[in-house]
Write a structure and sequence with these properties.
The complex is a heterotrimer. Chain A is mainly alpha-helical. Chain A is built from three helices and no strands. Chain A is flat, with a radius of gyration of 19 Å. Chain B contains nine helices and two strands. Chains in contact: A-B, A-C, B-C. Chains A and C meet through helix 3 of A and helix 9 and helix 11 of C.
Chain lengths: 102, 250, 557
C-alpha cells in the first residue's frame, strides 16, 4: 500500500453532530442579529468571521476532517491557500490603483 | 520483479484472492479504494472552490467599487427567506451527516430516513429560492432581461424597503444595482444548480439504499456524496452574509 | 551491454522475436472494447490519435498564417479572416494540443506503470475525460466550420464581449468542456500518485516524470476551474449583457484579464512541466547516468507549480494594473525562472561525464535544452516591466512563447513519443529517418522563429495581417522555416505509422533503461503487472540494471 493504513474509520457520534448543528443555527441567528447593529466598517468583518467559524465547524466535523489523514488536511489547506491567493492578489491590484503612480 | 517470462502465463498467475464484490480490480484492498475515492472527492471539491472563487473575486471588486448600490440591492432581498434557507440547508447538512452515520452503523431504516429528510430539505431550499426568484421577476430586478431601477432612484415607491430608510441613489449608481443582481443570480444560481445535481443524486441514493447497497460495509458513495453536500452548504454559508446582510442597519 | 558503442539500442534477435500475443492491444477486439475501455493504455492511445488530429489542424492554420505574412499586404486573406486564423490556431494548439499532449497521452500510459499500479485510480473518470475532450473538439470544429472566432485565443474583453459578432460563445463553451477534460486527468494523476504506489515505491524513488506530472496536475486541478467560470461570465456577458466586463455599465475589462490569466499563466506550466519530465527520463537514459540532483529536480517541479500561481499579471503590465502590482508580479516572475533554470543545470550536470549517445529521443532532448533555455531567458527579459512595455504585443512575445512551447514542449513531446514508442507498440521506429526528422525540425524551427525575435525588437506588432515593408525579409525567412518545420513534423506521422507494421520488434527494454515500465513486456498486458511489483531500488539505478542482466544471463545459461 502506498500509505500506511492510518485510515482510522473513526465514526463520529450523533451527539457531536447535534452539537455542531446547534452551533451553526446559533451562529446564523447571531449573524442576522449583528447585521442590524451599526458597527461601521466592522460589519462585513464580523459577518465573514462568523461565516468562517461556521464553515470550519462543517469542515472539521460534518466532513470529518478533524479525524482524517494529514493528506486530507493538507488538501483542504492548499485549496484555501490558492483561493486566498486569487482574491488577495487581484484585490491588491484594485486597491493599489488608487495610490497613484508612485 | 515482473519480467517477460512471467507474462508468458498471460492471466493472473496467483490465485484470485478474496475480495468483496464492490472492490474494483485495480485496487489492492477496500481501504485503498475508500481512501482513494475519498481523496478524489476532496480534490474535486477543491476545483469547485476555485470555480466559485472566480465569482467571489468579481463580487469583492464590484462591491468595493459600488458599495451604495450593493447596499440598496441587498435590501431588496427578503431576510426572512434568506435566514430560513440558511437554516434549512444547515439542517440538511445535519441529516446528511446522520445518513453517513447510519450507513456506517449499517442501519438501513435510519439511512433511508435521513436521506429522505435531506432530499426534502433540499427541495425546500429550492422551493424558497423559487419564491425569491419569482419575487425578483415581479419587481423587475432580473439583470439584462427585465430590469428597472425605480426602487433605487425612488426608494419611497417601494414598501418592501421602507424599514431601511434608504436615500435615493443617483442614476449612475442606481444603474450599478444591476451588477449586484447579476452577481446575486450568478452565485445563487450556480449554487442552486449544484443543489439540483445533489438532489438528483440523493434520489438515486435513496433508491439504492432501500436495496441494501450502503449498509453492507460499503459506505464510500454515501460518505463521498456527504462531502459534496456539505461543501454546497459551505458555499451558502458564505453567500448568505455576502448577499443578504450587506448593512441591514442603515 | 554494448561497450563504447554509438548506440545503446539493444533489440532481441529479430529472426525469433515476436510481439507478445496477449497484450493490451490484442486483449479485446471490437470498437466497443475501445470506446468503453477503462484501460489507461487504451485511453492514452485514443488521446494520441485525437490530439494528433488537432495538431495537424492547428498546424494547417499556422501554415496559413505564415503564407499570409509572406507579403506585407493583407493579400491572401482579409484582415478579419486572418484574425480568425490566428485565433483558431492559438485555441487549438493551446487547449487541444499542448495542454493534453504529454499528460493525456504519455502520462496516461505511463503513470500507473511507473508507480507500479494496475491502472489509474479512477478509470471511468479517465474515459470520461477523453469523451469530454472529443466533445470539446467537435464543438471547436463546429466553431471553425460556422465562421470561426477572431478575438485572439485570449478573448480579451470588451472586444470579445461587445464588439465582435463571431462565434465567441461556442468557442468559450468548447474550451469550458476541454477544461473539465483536463481537470479530470489531473485529478486522476494526483490521486493515483498519492494512493496507488506499489510497496517500496517511496516518493523519492519515483521517476522524475511522475513528479513533473504531479506538479502539472496540481495546476490543472486548481487553475482550470477559474478559466471555466471566466468563460461562463463571458458567455453571460454576451447573452444577457450583465455588464461585469463592460466599462459603460460599471464593469471592469481588467477583471476578465485577472481571472483569465490566473489560469492561463499556470497553463503554460501545465504545458511545459510534463515535457520537462520526459527530458529527465531521456537525458538519464541516453547518458547512462542517474539524474544529477534528483531532489532538486523533484522539488523544482513543485516550486514551479506553486510560484506559477502568483505571477499571472505579468501578462497585464500594459493593461492598466497599478504600478505596485506590476512591481510585485515582476519580482515574482523573476523568481519563477529559478526552478526552471535549476532543471537545465541539473540536466547539464547529468550529461557531464555520462556515456552520451544520440538516438532520436536524445536529439529532441538536446533541442529542448537549447531552445527552452533561449525561450526561458527571453521570458525573463519580458518579466522586467521596462522592457515589457516595448516588447509586449510584438513578435518578440510570439517568438518567446513559440520557443518554449514548440522548441521546448513539442520537442519534448516528440522525444517522449519516440522514447516510449517501443513500449507502447512493441516495435521500434526507423532510427535514421527519425534522426533526420529531428534535425530538420530543429533547423526549420530556428529559421521560423529566431527572425521573429528580431522582428519584435524592431517593432513589428503581433496579430496584424499587414505590416510595414521593411519587415518583409525576416518574414520570408520565417515562412521558409515554417515549410521546413512542416516537413519535419510530417515525417514522424509517416514513419511511425509505417513502423506499426514493419518496425523491428523492440522487446522489453530496447533502451536498457531503468524504470518499472521497462521491466515488463512491450506492449504491456492490460493489467500491466502480473503481480504488483515491490520497489527495492532507487530511481535511475543503472547498477541495479546491471545486476538484473547478470541474473538473467546466469539463469538462462
Amino acid at each position: 500500500m502506498s500509505e500506511p493504513n492510518e485510515h482510522e474509520h473513526h465514526i463520529v457520534s450523533p451527539m457531536v453532530y447535534l452539537t455542531i448543528v446547534g452551533a451553526l443555527l446559533v451562529g446564523t441567528a447571531v449573524t442576522v442579529w449583528a447585521s442590524f447593529i451599526d458597527m461601521g466598517p466592522w460589519n462585513p468583518v464580523v459577518a465573514l468571521a462568523i461565516a468562517v467559524v461556521k464553515a470550519t465547524l462543517v469542515v472539521l466535523f460534518f466532513m470529518h476532517v478533524k479525524y482524517s489523514t494529514k493528506l486530507t488536511k493538507l488538501t483542504v489547506i492548499s485549496g484555501i491557500f490558492v483561493f486566498l491567493g486569487l482574491i488577495s492578489m487581484t484585490l491588491a491590484d484594485y486597491i493599489s490603483r488608487a495610490w497613484g503612480r508612485w | 520483479m515482473s519480467d517477460s517470462t512471467t507474462t508468458a502465463h498471460g492471466a493472473l498467475a496467483e490465485s484470485h484472492h478474496e475480495h468483496p464484490p464492490y472492490q474494483r480490480h485495480h485496487f489492492e484492498s477496500v481501504e485503498q479504494q475508500f481512501d482513494t475515492t475519498n481523496f478524489a472527492m476532496w480534490l474535486f471539491l477543491l476545483t469547485e472552490v476555485m470555480f466559485f472563487g472566480g465569482l467571489f473575486t468579481a463580487y469583492l471588486i464590484l462591491r468595493n467599487w459600488y458599495y451604495p448600490a450593493f447596499v440598496a440591492g441587498s435590501h431588496q432581498l427578503n431576510i426572512g427567506w434568506g435566514t430560513a434557507n440558511t437554516a434549512v440547508l444547515i439542517t440538511s447538512s445535519f441529516t446528511m451527516a446522520m445518513a453517513v452515520w447510519n450507513a456506517e452503523m449499517k442501519r438501513k431504516g435510519g439511512l433511508v430516513l435521513c436521506l429522505v429528510l435531506t432530499f426534502i430539505l433540499g427541495l425546500g431550499f429550492l422551493g424558497i429560492k423559487t419564491i425569491e426568484y419569482h419575487e425578483k421577476w415581479e419587481k423587475h430586478h432580473i439583470p439584462g432581461i427585465r430590469y428597472s431601477v425605480k426602487s433605487f432612484v425612488n426608494p419611497a415607491s417601494d414598501p418592501d424597503i421602507a424599514q431601511y430608510g434608504d436615500k435615493p441613489l443617483a442614476p449612475d449608481m442606481a444603474a450599478k444595482t444591476e451588477l449586484y443582481f447579476f452577481l446575486y443570480f450568478a452565485m445563487t444560481g450556480m449554487h442552486a444548480l449544484h443543489m439540483i445535481i445533489g438532489i438528483a443524486i440523493l434520489g438515486y441514493m435513496i433508491y439504492r439504499a432501500r436495496n441494501d447497497a450502503y449498509t453492507t460495509g460499503h459506505v464510500t458513495f454515501v460518505e463521498n456524496f456527504g462531502l459534496y453536500w456539505h461543501f454546497v452548504d459551505i458555499i451558502w454559508i458564505f453567500l448568505f452574509p455576502l448577499l443578504y446582510l450587506i448593512s441591514r442597519h442603515q | 551491454m554494448s561497450s563504447a558503442a554509438s548506440t545503446i539500442i539493444n533489440l532481441p534477435d529479430q529472426s525469433t522475436a515476436r510481439i507478445p500475443k496477449v497484450n493490451f492491444l490484442t486483449k479485446e477486439n471490437g470498437l466497443l472494447s475501445w470506446l468503453l475501455t477503462g484501460d489507461h493504455k487504451r485511453i492514452a492511445t485514443l488521446y494520441l490519435i485525437s490530439i494528433t488530429f488537432f495538431f495537424f489542424i492547428g498546424g494547417a492554420l499556422a501554415g496559413l498564417i505564415r503564407l499570409e505574412l509572406l507579403t506585407p499586404q493583407s493579400d491572401l486573406m482579409a484582415a478579419d479572416t486572418y484574425n480568425k486564423v490566428f485565433t483558431m490556431h492559438g485555441v487549438i494548439m493551446v487547449f487541444f494540443f499542448l495542454v493534453p499532449s504529454v499528460p493525456a497521452t504519455i502520462g496516461n500510459f505511463l503513470i500507473p506503470l511507473m508507480v507500479g499500479a494496475k491502472d489509474l485510480a479512477l478509470p471511468k473518470i479517465n474515459l470520461l475525460s477523453w469523451y469530454l475532450y472529443v466533445v470539446a473538439g467537435l464543438m471547436a470544429i463546429y466553431t471553425m466550420a460556422s465562421g470561426g472566432v477572431d478575438t485572439g485565443w485570449t478573448f480579451t474583453t470588451p472586444l470579445s464581449t461587445h464588439y465582435l459578432n463571431t462565434n465567441v460563445i461556442s468557442t468559450g463553451l468548447a474550451i469550458f468542456v476541454a477544461g473539465f477534460s483536463s481537470i479530470f486527468t489531473g485529478l486522476n494523476f494526483i490521486v493515483t500518485i498519492h494512493k496507488m504506489r506499489c510497496p517500496g515505491m517511496t516518493w523519492f524513488r519515483l521517476p522524475l516524470f511522475v513528479w513533473s506530472n504531479y506538479a502539472a496536475s496540481i495546476l490543472m486541478v486548481l487553475g482550470t476551474p477559474v478559466l471555466a467560470i471566466t468563460l461562463v461570465l463571458v458567455v453571460l456577458e454576451r447573452t444577457v449583457h450583465i455588464g461585469v466586463f463592460d466599462p459603460a455599465n460599471g464593469g471592469d475589462p481588467l477583471l476578465f484579464q485577472h481571472l483569465f490569466w490566473f489560469y492561463s499563466h499556470p497553463a503554460v506550466y501545465i504545458m511545459i512541466l510534463p515535457g520537462m519530465g520526459v527530458i529527465s527520463e531521456v537525458v538519464s537514459t541516453f547518458s547512462r547516468k542517474r539524474v544529477f540532483g534528483y531532489t532538486a529536480v523533484a522539488f523544482s517541479s513543485v516550486a514551479i507549480a506553486v510560484f506559477g500561481f502568483f505571477v499571472w499579471a505579468h501578462h497585464m503590465f500594459i493593461m492598466g494594473i497599478s504600478n505596485y502590482a506590476a512591481l510585485v508580479f515582476s519580482l515574482l516572475t523573476m523568481l519563477v525562472a529559478v526552478p526552471s533554470a535549476i532543471k537545465i543545470f541539473n540536466w547539464a550536470f547529468t550529461l557531464y561525464k555520462g556515456s552520451i549517445t544520440f538516438e532520436t529521443p536524445m536529439l529532441y532532448a538536446f533541442g529542448f535544452m537549447g531552445l527552452f533555455t533561449i525561450g526561458g531567458m527571453t521570458g525573463v527579459f519580458l518579466g522586467a516591466t521596462g522592457t515589457d512595455i516595448h516588447l509586449t504585443e510584438t513578435y518578440f512575445i510570439v517568438a518567446h512563447f513559440h520557443f518554449v512551447m514548440v522548441g521546448g514542449m513539442l520537442m519534448a513531446f516528440l522525444a517522449g513519443i519516440h522514447f516510449w514508442w517501443p513500449k507502447w507498440t512493441g516495435r521500434m521506429y526507423p532510427e535514421k529517418i527519425s534522426q533526420l526528422a529531428a534535425v530538420v525540425t530543429f533547423i526549420g524551427f530556428n529559421l521560423t522563429f529566431f527572425p521573429q525575435f528580431i522582428l519584435g525588437t524592431l517593432g513589428m506588432p503581433r496579430r496584424y495581417a499587414a505590416y510595414p515593408p521593411e519587415f518583409q525579409v525576416l518574414n520570408v525567412f520565417s515562412t521558409a522555416g515554417a515549410s521546413i518545420l512542416g516537413v519535419g513534423y510530417l515525417l514522424p506521422i509517416l514513419y511511425l505509422t509505417w513502423s506499426l507494421k514493419y518496425g523491428e520488434i523492440a522487446g522489453d527494454n530496447p533502451w536498457q533503461a531503468t524504470g518499472l515500465e521497462w521491466q515488463i513486456q512491450s506492449p504491456p498486458l492490460t493489467e500491466n503487472f502480473a503481480t504488483i511489483p515491490i520497489m527495492d531500488h532507487e530511481a535511475y539505478d543503472y547498477d541495479w540494471l546491471e545486476r538484473q542482466h547478470e541474473k538473467e544471463v546466469a539463469s538462462v545459461g
